[in-house]
């Protein structure tokens, strides 16, 4: 696990595209992704993580990615939350424990930075992801809403 660099952005986009939902909403103009990367990278409350593949002939391919955001708040006694977003594991690495290791690393990151609660969202259609998160101690305790702007 390491902090992503600008050179990782194309590989991260490929991970984001590697599923049914991502294949329809990711890709296109690289400039937008590069702008977003610079904004994320310049914010000390953000950590865009990547996992490099250790497989032979991987040629620097990424095995996984996730974005971590520390959110200070007044609720829960002034608690800081760790938001985990855009968790992706490359198809060839799924089922080997990498996703669980990534979550454990993220939780340690949150703890080191004073977070007392970790939260994440996942699309309602991702039943397999729901089972994965539940196996790792997450509960579907809230209903989320989104609205395009």
Automatic annotation (TrEMBL):
Keyword Lyase: yes
Residues in the signal sequence: none
Domain N-acetyltransferase: 1-149
Coiled-coil residue spans: none
Entry keywords, A to Z: Acyltransferase, Lyase, Transferase
Pfam families: Acetyltransf_1 (PF00583)
One Gene Ontology term of the molecular function aspect: lyase activity
SUPFAM superfamilies, A to Z: Acyl-CoA N-acyltransferases (Nat)
Xref: InterPro entries: Acyl_CoA_acyltransferase, Bact_Acetyltransf, GNAT_dom
Database matches in PROSITE patterns: GNAT
Entry-linked Gene3D superfamilies: 3.40.630.30
Name of protein: Regulatory protein for C-P lyase
Organism in which the protein naturally occurs: Agrococcus casei LMG 22410
